[in-house]
Amino acid sequence: MAKAQTILRPHAEKAYAKELKALKKNDKQPKPAGWQLSPQAVVTYLLGGTLEDGTEIEPKYFGQRRLIEVAVATLVTDRALLLVGIPGTAKTWVSEHLAAAISGDSTLLVQGTAGMNEEALRYGWNYARLLAKGPSKEAMVPSPIMKGMTNGQLVRIEELTRIPSDVQDALITILSEKSLPVPELNTEVQAVRGFNLIATANDRDKGVNELSSALRRRFNTVVMPLPASLEEEVKIVETRVLQTQNQLEVPAAKLPSEEVRRLVTIFRELRSGKTEDGRVKIKSPSSTLSTAEAISVINNGQALATHFGNGNLQAEDLAASLTGAIIKDNKQDAPLWEEYLETVVRQRKDWKDLYEACRSLL
């Protein structure tokens, strides 16, 4: 008998199906056409809360409530939403959960790449049918955007600025006219209520293509900031690491908050170019050192501690992944990291174990 397979990463609407069902049951506010939940319920789903029947909704995003309210309010209108921020500011996470809460489906996704062509945004063709019968609806292969327009659902476009500029502009007609021309069939697809776009973009990575002013005007832009405080970032890292461990069923020991705090402190100081107390200036490396990167370092450290250590996350378990996260360009970043270890980490008496573990890898 075949063993039942476990999905590595369920889509948001599957992973949080119970919460979405409870929200829908308790939701007494008016819903826009095509929406599964009211705008107020969508915000509750993203930020967490307690429903009238006592159901606890887990926070998906830790940050300013107003940002999420602005994002949801944008999607109520016919304006598309653009989430902008450096890598690791939860742009993709927020867009997925917005789509899950509003449309009940987060799978209509276009992943932006440098080699993308217009077919990925518009439609393609089944060439066997095209050659056999010529252009027809049966021969057409709809893109996620065409499906979203037809069914009245949200569509996500990841890494919009990685898409070549001439391909980006294929979105202008879709966003302006809410229609997609199909000249081969002398027809068009018109969007039904509930359709909209959520795009994500950053301007820090290599290979970025600027958005034309004509396209940018058709989006409402929400800038996703890094966590405002050390405590907030520590909480995010701890929460997401625990979620990952539960999904992967990793038999890890309880996560030590002190190790998370030290890691997040290092990331924040290297990002800002100064120590938390502001007394020492620091040179920043080329890496972004985002919250997502911190989560990855902790996850790797937990795996090392569980399978190759004593089960408890310690400095030597963090050191290898930490060094790899910081040193992306060996010639440029290695001297900066060594200088930070000597001028900052070494001077902190209770960080001696972390200093020695990191130093041994240089």
Description:
There is one protein chain. By secondary structure, the protein is an alpha/beta fold. The chain has a five-stranded parallel β-sheet. The N and C termini lie far apart (51 Å).
CATH topology of the largest domain: Rossmann fold
Total number of domains: 2
End-to-end separation: 51 Å
Uncertain residue segments: none
- Largest sheet data: 5 strands, parallel
The share of residues in extended strands comes to: 5-15%
Instruction: Give the overall silhouette.
Output: globular
CATH architecture of the largest domain: 3-Layer(aba) Sandwich
Helix content: 40-55%
Order of helices and strands: HHHEEHEHEEHEHEHHEEEHEHHHHHH
The whole-angstrom Rg is 23 Å
CATH class of the largest domain: Alpha Beta
Mean pLDDT: 91
CATH superfamily of the largest domain: P-loop containing nucleotide triphosphate hydrolases
Lateral arrangement of strands in the main beta sheet = 4-7-10-3-11
Summary?
The chain is an alpha/beta fold. It has 16 helices and eleven strands.
Can you give keywords for this protein?
two-stranded antiparallel ribbon; 2 domains; five-stranded parallel β-sheet; 362 residues; alpha/beta
List the helices and strands and how they pair.
Blueprint: H1 12-15, H2 17-26, H3 39-47, E1 49-50, E2 56-57, H4 65-76, E3 80-84, H5 91-103, E4 109-111, E5 123-125, H6 127-133, E6 140-142, H7 144-151, E7 154-158, H8 165-168, H9 171-177, E8 179-182, E9 187-190, E10 196-201, H10 213-216, E11 219-223, H11 230-248, H12 257-272, H13 291-308, H14 315-326, H15 330-343, H16 352-359
Parallel strand pairs: 3-10, 3-11, 4-7, 7-10
Antiparallel strand pairs: 1-2, 5-6, 8-9
